Amino acid sequence: MKDYLFVMRGLPHMSSHVQETLDQMLTTAAFDQTVSVLFVDDGVLQLKSGQHPQHAGLKNTAAIFQVLALYGINELFVEAESLASRGLTLNELILPVQPIARAEVNALLQRHAIIIPG
Fold first, then answer.
1. How deeply is 111 buried, as exposed, middle or buried, from its count of CB atoms within 10 A (0-12, 13-18, 19+)?
2. Model confidence over 23-37: pLDDT tens digits?
3. Is residue 118 one of the residues assigned to a domain?
4. Which helix (H) or strand (E) holds 29?
């Protein structure tokens, strides 16, 4: 079994990339691999509650994020500096995540055998 870390960097609802990455996460976890997720840069905006992309004709990925735990994906990290620079707090997010400092990101990356940028 390998440890996978998916790094979510991009804005939500800009393309199908977030949806495709979520599908890849679920598939990886379904094959009994260990999956963790790190949200950095604009990727933290994917977790902001109260978004309504369907009003713009886009798919709402919040429901998919909600099922991560059902697939055993429980290690969710958010870079604290990215969150703060976008004016967000942990209370405004749709999932419970563990904040980590930018200085700790390299150590997190080193703990995983496979890193998938998103």
1. exposed
2. 999 999 999 999 999
3. no
4. helix 17-30
